[in-house]
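Appendix B. Raw example, untouched.
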Amino acid sequence: MFQNIATVIVLIICSYVDIRQRKVEKRIAGIYAAAVLAGRLAEGGTGLAALFTGLVPGILFLFLSFVTRQGIGYGDSILILLLGASVGIEAELEILLLAFALSGIWAVALLFRKKGNVQQEFPFVPFLLAGAVLEMIFA
């Protein structure tokens, strides 16, 4: 339960900063990383297994950030990495699926309203927040 509450609080703060400044606050991510690590260490063996398997999608996203020259920002990838360490790989994949679906709907809406174009960037962390909240409500 602590991990879920911490995740939502961090994603709310990071969403606000991402919308305003188009970046992820490194200090918040660092505090979150420490809290996740402490929580997983307190859980023992099963917590450490969930920690390491949850890191896999985040590592892939960091690689994609590098390959695409931050088409997906490093900050977003770091949050995805920490999200997986916090909630585990299964919940992380559900959150990512919801986040990408919601961001796709948002992008299509922007195109139809002629408020954006195909190359337009928009903050992704609010979609991670929405995906996390939906996953926690319906899981």
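End of appendix B.
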